[in-house]
TrEMBL record:
Compartment(s) of residence: Endoplasmic reticulum membrane; Endoplasmic reticulum-Golgi intermediate compartment membrane; Golgi apparatus, cis-Golgi network membrane; Membrane
Record's GO cellular component terms: endoplasmic reticulum membrane; endoplasmic reticulum-Golgi intermediate compartment membrane; Golgi apparatus
Domain GOLD span(s) in chain numbering: 39-120
Keywords annotated in UniProt: Endoplasmic reticulum, Membrane, Signal, Transmembrane, Transmembrane helix
Annotated protein name in UniProt: GOLD domain-containing protein
Spans through the membrane: 192-211
Signal peptide (UniProt feature, chain positions): 1-21
Stated family: Belongs to the EMP24/GP25L family.
Organism listed in the record: Pleurodeles waltl
Chief place where the protein resides: endoplasmic reticulum
UniProt topology in membrane: Single-pass type I membrane protein
Pfam families xrefs: EMP24_GP25L
Keyword Transmembrane helix: yes
């Protein structure tokens, strides 16, 4: 029994090592400020039979809108959206550099704060990682089959954790946008309240002055 447990533990150690070092999907996020009248483009190299998912959101700026388009390596416009505040798009990719742009040229005075996240699936080298896994988990031995089940469970947990992180990141972006809207509304309310207060004070002063001047004229008109 000890002779079989030791190889199992060694294989499990290799599985955990590869599971921690290898990821089938990669995600990254970025927040930047897009000045009025400007366009900003980004490039992402991809390979065949991979998946590119782009999520974007306008966090701040008048109108909370921006033009967005995605261009393939063959210069084909895959996606074009005009004056949108957010969007989520997934495309199956081919070899080459994909370009995605955020366009604020329609705005002349308002800058935009834009958040976007890239989720890249199946971007590893073809077949190499799968062969590394199979070297440790494939076989006819019952212990090998149980090890393959453990590997499948680990991959499922890892995929769910990755999706949870992506969802939390996007929810943070929504929260940031809502907070910016609330702060902007609060600033507008305070500004108009101060204007109304100043107008009321000025009108009250004018009324007092006019009433006072009327009584003074009556006193001067008496013999």
């Amino acid at each position: 029994m000890a002779n079989r447990v030791l190889p199992l533990l060694l294989c499990l150690q290799h599985v955990l090592h590869f599971c921690l070092g290898f990821s089938q999907s990669v995600d990254s996020d970025f927040t930047f400020t897009l000045p009025p009248g400007h366009k900003e483009c980004f490039y992402q190299p991809m390979r065949n039979e991979a998946s590119l998912e782009i999520e974007y959101q306008v966090l701040d700026g008048a109108g909370l809108d921006v033009n967005f388009y995605l261009v393939s390596p063959k210069n084909d416009v895959l996606i074009f959206e005009e004056r949108r505040s957010d969007g989520v798009h997934t495309v199956e990719t081919e070899d080459g550099d994909y370009m995605f742009c955020f366009d604020n040229t329609f705005s002349t005075i308002s800058e935009k704060v834009i958040f976007f996240e890239l989720i890249l699936d199946n971007i590893g080298e073809d077949g190499k990682d799968d062969e590394d896994w199979k070297k440790y988990v494939m076989g006819n031995d019952p212990l090998d089959m149980k090890l393959e089940d453990i590997l499948e469970k680990i991959n499922n947990v890892k995929a769910r954790l990755s999706k949870s992180v992506q969802l939390q990141t996007f929810l943070k972006a929504f929260e940031a946008r809502d907070r910016n809207i609330q702060e902007s509304n609060c600033e507008r309310v305070n500004t108009w309240s101060m204007i109304n207060l100043v107008v009321m004070v000025v009108v009250s002063a004018v009324q007092v002055y006019m009433l006072k001047s009327w009584f003074e004229e009556k006193r001067k008109s008496r013999p």
